[in-house]
Each structure stands twice: as structure tokens, then as C-alpha cells.
Amino acid sequence: MDSVTYSHSRSITCEQFIDVLNRSTLGKRRPVANRERIASMLEHSNLLCTAWSGDVLVGVARSVTDFSYCCYMSDLAVDAAYQRKGVGVRLIRATQERLDPQCMIVLLAAPQAEGYYPKIGMTQHRSAWILPAAPYLRRDPGHALGPAASAGLSASGRVTDLD
User: Fold this and answer.
1) Burial classification of residue 103, based on how many CB atoms lie within 10 Å of its CB (0-12 exposed, 13-18 middle, 19 or more buried)
2) How do residues 57-68 score in pLDDT, each as one tens digit?
3) C-alpha pair distances (Å), 54 with each of 1, 16, 18, 115
């Protein structure tokens, strides 16, 4: 197995990203069949750290961050053949190196990786919440928002009134 090199400045293609997601098993929980959505995920990330064996992408840490307070690591994918070799830890460290020392990293663990994060020093947060793509967020406990008009959105999708 070749040595692994790390980068925060090397861009990746949709195909490379999809390939490493599938080789890491994370592809089961990502929209790998929707190339347009994958392209959008890459385009709107603002911190991407990668691991390479020669010209083959073997790991990626994809994040959205303000670089100062919080960094949401939306993907930590390591090719199964490179797991348990420190690649994931090195990708997290590479991400940390790009952030303010006081910036925290937040992530949602894949079910198969839940036991990994405590072993590397991360702590579990018991009050994290997820809002799925649908249904829409409720205004208050008794009043559910619906699509567009009832959500205070105009036909163009702009917020008109949420109070």
C-alpha cells in the first residue's frame, strides 16, 4: 500500500468523491446516484481536506465552517482498505489545522462509526437535534408550517412573515 499524503488545497471531482464515499460505506447514506446534488455538496463546502495514495483519493473530510466558532464536518469518509491506519484522525487534524484553535468540530456519526469517535478523544453531545428535509419546521407546538405560503414564503421562495 502506498504512503498517504494529505491536502487542504487539492480539488476533487464528483466522480472521485462518489467513489471514495462508496469505498468507505458512507455512500449508503449519501445521494451518490444524484451527481448534481453531489456537485452542489462539494461546491458549497468551504473546507475540504483530502487523503491520497498516489492519484487515488482514499479519504475526505468535507466541512462547512465559519473557521472561528464552529465547523460542521458533514463527511468523514475513508476507503475501507485504509481504515484503522490513522487516516481518519489525520483528516480531522488537517481540518483542525485550518481552524481557529478555539473552533469546535461537530459531526453526526455514521452508525458503524459511533464507537470510533470516543476513542480519538471526541465527546458525545446528548442534545443534538436534526430537522429532516420534510416535514417543515413547526412555528410553535400547535401550529405546523406547510409548504411555501403557510411557511411565510412568497411564490418566489422569499420569507414574507414568520411571526
Assistant:
1) middle
2) 999 999 999 999
3) 10, 13, 18, 30
Interval 26-40: pLDDT, tens: 999 999 999 999 999
Q: Shortest CA distance to 63 belongs to which of 80, 79, 41, 82?
A: 41
Q: Which amino acid is at 37?
A: R
Distance CA 136, CA 89 (A): 36
pTM of the predicted model as reported, rounded to 2 decimal places = 0.80
Q: What is the CATH number of domain 5-128?
A: 3.40.630.30
Number of residues written out for the chain? 163
Q: For residue 113, give the 3-state DSSP assignment.
A: helix
**How far, CA to CA in Å, does 89 sit from each of 48, 79, 120, 122?**
15, 13, 7, 11
> Domain boundaries in the chain?
5-128
Amino acid at 62: R
Alpha-carbon gap, residue 16 to 14, rounded angstroms: 5
